[in-house]
Design brief:
Helix content is 25%, strand content 28%. It has eleven helices and 21 strands. The radius of gyration is 21 Å and the shape is globular. The protein starts with 6 loop residues before the first strand and ends with a strand.
């Protein structure tokens, strides 16, 4: 049998589909594409067979907000300043991140560049665009997320974004970044209240870019105007805002209230209290939520204390919490699979909905029509996993039908 007709049969699994979990399932994969998902052990002479051993089979996770991993940062300095020591981001760094994410069950992700100088953004988008074409990445990077620099300059709402690089949107400046990315900026986070935001949102939407509202203090009217002009998502709702808010007039309520706006949020157990996640889930419903990780370069590193650029230190705990040593969150270090388990725990949603919010929904929002669901004709981006003690444990990962990770 030629490699172009190679048939892989994964049997004795529990296939997680939008309509439910198929017991004793078989998933057939030919040439990197799903050929069939069915109940029972199908007789397929000549197929390469893999016993799933009763494990769950699901689409690979899709993470739309990845700032870095394994000491590599896509925009700022890496953990331990490893990037500065070898002159900045490289294609090899991107491979390192991708391989690290495969181990965590993430088969598709958006490298995320945050607020920085135009020079740095142009340089790193160029490197990422080059890496994206590397065949060894197996199409795991369909495009990029630009978070900023067109956000609020106000402390609290700005978050960890450096104030010296926050600026209002200038269309020609953005087009330089878009060209450097190979026209693969698929998602951009902006603040609706900044000067020129509405026109900028409209133009991005016309290019097919998903516009998300984040790091902002927009009023209800400004948020409505932004949505009217094409904004369709909220970036890590509940974070990227001030610690103290007006109980009635704040940016969270209007984003929850408008049915046209889908939301993303970080479900790592540290960024949001359980009650807030419960309200988000009850208000928007599983079909309108994207779970993301917002992970940084500290993901994949051992627990311990690390020095950062300004001389301060951050502590990564055994359970993946990343905090300034003097208190306060310093980004995320928990992979997306933790969000699957945590939202099930706090919202009461089942595994089917949790998988939907980390696979099908992000694929749908960003028109990634070739992945995100166990269906005939979709990419065979698959994970085999178990749920143990409220933890999602990845056993195997396949990208385009190729096994890229196994825990044994």
């Amino acid at each position: 049998m030629g490699s172009e007709n190679r048939l892989l049969k994964i049997y004795n699994g529990q296939a997680v589909t939008p309509s439910g979990i198929v017991k004793n399932a078989t998933v057939l994969v030919r040439s990197g594409v799903i050929e069939k998902v069915a109940e029972g052990n199908l007789n397929m002479p000549g197929a390469i067979e893999l016993d799933a051993k009763g494990h769950y089979i699901a689409p690979g996770l899709i993470d739309i907000q990845v700032n870095g991993c394994n000491s590599v940062s896509f925009c700022l300095e890496g953990a331990g300043d490893t990037l500065a020591s070898h002159g900045g981001l490289t294609v090899s760094d991107v491979k390192k991140v991708t391989e690290g994410l495969w181990k965590e069950g993430v088969t598709t992700y958006f490298p995320t560049l945050t607020t920085n100088s135009q020079k740095m953004l142009l340089k790193n988008f160029g490197i990422l665009a080059k890496a994206m074409g590397d065949p060894s990445l197996l199409g795991s990077i369909p495009g990029f997320h630009l978070e900023g620099p067109y956000i609020s300059a106000v402390d609290g709402y700005r978050g960890a974004h450096p104030i010296e690089h926050v600026r209002k949107p200038i269309w020609n400046e953005f087009l330089e970044l878009y060209k450097a990315s190979g026209e693969k900026i698929l998602l951009i986070t902006v603040a609706p209240e900044v000067e020129g935001a509405y026109e900028f949102i409209r133009k991005c939407t016309e290019l097919g870019i998903v516009v998300s509202l984040g790091h902002h203090n927009g009023t209800a009217g400004q948020i409505k105007q932004a949505i009217d002009h094409g904004a369709s998502l909220a970036t890590h709702l509940g974070n990227g805002c001030a610690n103290t808010l007006n109980r009635h007039l704040n940016p969270i309520w209007p984003q929850l209230a408008d049915d046209r706006l889908k939301i993303s949020f970080i479900a790592d157990g540290f960024h949001l209290p359980p009650e807030m996640i419960q309200v988000f889930y009850k208000t928007k419903g599983a079909e309108n939520i994207v779970i993301t990780s917002d992970i940084t370069s500290y993901t994949g590193l051992p627990a311990g204390t690390y020095k950062i650029k300004d001389g301060k230190t951050v502590e990564k705990t055994v359970d993946g919490n990343l905090r300034f040593s003097e208190g306060g969150l310093y980004g995320s270090a928990s992979p997306l699979r933790k969000g699957v388990a945590h939202i099930m725990k706090v919202s009461g949603c089942g595994l089917v909905n949790a998988i939907q919010m980390t696979t099908l929904n992000p694929a749908y929002v960003h028109n990634l029509n070739d992945r995100g669901v166990l269906e005939r004709g979709k990419r065979a981006d698959l994970i085999l996993f178990t749920m143990d003690n409220e933890r999602m444990l990845i056993q195997k990962t396949f990208v385009a039908g190729k096994e890229v990770y196994s825990n044994s």
